[in-house]
Amino acid sequence: MTYPSQPGYPAPQYGGQPPQQPQQNNLWLIGGAVLTVLIVIMTVILLVVQGTQNDSNSGDGGEDPSGGTNETGDDGGNDGGDDGGDDGGSGPVELTSDACDAYDFGSFEDTYGALDDTSRSESSYNGFGSVDCSFYNSDSTGVTLQISDYETAEDASYLIESIPDYYNEDNGYELSEYTELGDVGYIYTQDSDGWKSIYIHVVTGSLEVKVNTTLWDTESIDEAAATAVLEDFITQSNEMFADLV
């Protein structure tokens, strides 16, 4: 009996390169393609998000003019109130030479005429300030004002207590006590040929205010009206520097 011959097996090839594995290369290609697609998708999403944010910001910018108008109107009201408060001597105001500009000159100009010139100076002693202001009309007639701050009310009153020793009748002055606008004070005048000087010197707490004017017969400025101007400057000073009292 004869049997069919068995099929032979190919002999192995030695010394040659092993065959490549095409299945593994395909996996790398597929993975690279997927990664590329993901990168493209993320890039598109990022661009869309940025575009949306820009549109939102542009929309906010468009709303600003209307919102800004409302805010500007509110600020305008506040600024107007603040500016109005600064004028007219309402305080508080820092005790420097700039304070000379903070007074309301309405009363002065009603009596002396238009304000034509101002001079000023400031100083300090032991950390406490003093300011001098002088206001003149076109004829160089005007009012001189001095405001000084002290550590205590006793210090402020120390010098004023000696006024009667110097500004008295023997020295050509007419002197009276004056406490209408201060805790302690005096009003005194000196009359001479062709002119008359008026002084008011008061202390309120630790704040000292001195104000004076010289009236010339040639100008015909009313004495009572000039005295009212001095009192007005004292009143404004007490308000402006109330935090120092």
Automatic annotation (TrEMBL):
Q: Which UniProt keywords apply?
A: Membrane, Transmembrane, Transmembrane helix
Any transmembrane segments, and where? Answer: 27-49
Region annotation (Disordered) maps to 1-21, 53-96
Compositional bias (Acidic residues)? 72-86
Protein name, entry field: DUF3558 domain-containing protein
